[in-house]
Each structure stands twice: as structure tokens, then as C-alpha cells.
Amino acid sequence: MGDDKKDRRLAPKKASLPCRSLITHHPSRTLALLQGLRFIDSFFPSGGYAFSSGLEAAVQGGAVRDAEDARCYVTDLLRNGLGRREAVAVGAAQGAGAVGVVQPALDADRELETMKTGRESRLASRQMGRHLMRVAGGPDSAPVLQAFLGWVEERKTPGHLPVSLGLTLGALGWMKEDAIAAYLYQTSTGLVSAALKLLPIGQRQGQWLLESWLPLIADLSREAASRTEMSAWVPIQDIHAMRHASLTTRLFRS
Fold this sequence. Notes:
Elements: H1 2-10, H2 28-40, H3 55-60, H4 67-82, H5 86-99, H6 103-115, H7 119-136, H8 143-153, H9 161-172, H10 176-198, H11 203-224, H12 235-243
């Protein structure tokens, strides 16, 4: 018995495997999906939780009073605003990321800048896009992401969130329609999160809101994937977004 213990003590220990060798190889599509999902997850530190996209002003002004009002308000915003303007910008940037050419993303970024009429909305979009690019455009990222980050950091382009996200997902291998859907879904979840804080609704109603928008998001993503021109007509939402800066009390920055 004693000899057995001594032999075990003297036996050479098995060398531990380096962490890199423990990483399994995933199919490229699965890995691309996982890499992209972290940028639209609420855990990602883009600062989106601080913005309501004018919903707070709409609630204080009495335009949105309950879950049904919120559903109608956001449905109009998606159909006539985000789905025709930001979604097209995401698509243009996705194409740029997919082929590794930064210029189409710069063009889309500057066009989007001219079309966002509210100052708070512009600043919010820039801030969230800048935060995203500082993570996505790191030293080991695709050259097109590093190039766009350089333009953003030098203040030569605004770096709006739709463009930053579209470019990143395109560089990761996401398809255009999927990238657009991801942006619209991310924005919708942000609006649900804001509604839960601003309205007397619970988590189940929040999920009902999100579910009610999913078919619309799918349709808008498919349509926007084939468009090249941005347009929008959401005057009510734009007015509330601009009024937000003058609110006496505020939970959100936009």
C-alpha cells in the first residue's frame, strides 16, 4: 500500500492543455451568428438603455397611455420611419462589410446624418454607434471595421448605430436581411424596455408588444434589403423626440 502511494507521488503529472486547444471548431455560420448576437444583446454596453427615442415625451404629453397606445406608436415608427430609413442604412453598411469596402458605409452614414432631424436622436445614434465600433473595430477585427472606426474617431463621419451595426454584421458574414432584422429587433426591445419604465404595464405585456411587431419586422427587413434610397415620414414621433429636451423631469436622455 505504501509503495503504491509513493509510485503515484513520483509519477509525472499530465501536462495541462492550453486554453486554445480546448476551443472547439464551430461551423462558420454558427460562429458568425454568435459573434453578431452579442452586439444586439441588451448586455452589450452601447448605452441604449438611456434612450427612449421620444417615447418619454409621448407618454408625458398624453399621446401614449397604455400598452395599446405604445403598440400603435411604435408600429407607425417602424413602418414609416425606422423600416424605411435606418433599415436601408443597415443594408448599405452590411453590403460594405461583406465586401470589405468602407466607402458605401461612409456614404450611408452621412446621408443618415442629414435625415435625422432631432438633435437628441442624432446624438444618441452617434453615441451608441461609436461604442459599438470601439469594440467591433479592435486590433483583431476585419480591416474594413478598423478603417471605419478610424473615420469615426477622427470625427470624419458620425458613426451612427445602424451603419456601425450593419457594417459589423456584414463583416462577420451575416446576410443583409438578417442584419436589418437584427437592428429593428434591437430597437424594438429597447422601446419595450423604456415602455416598462414609463407605463403601467408588466413583463407579459412587454412580451406581447414585442411579439406583435415581429411579423412587421420580418416584412420590413425583406423590403429594405432591396432598397437603396432612404425615406421617412413620422412627424408625430419626430416632434415628440424634439420636445424631449424641454421636459422638466426626465428618466431618459432622448
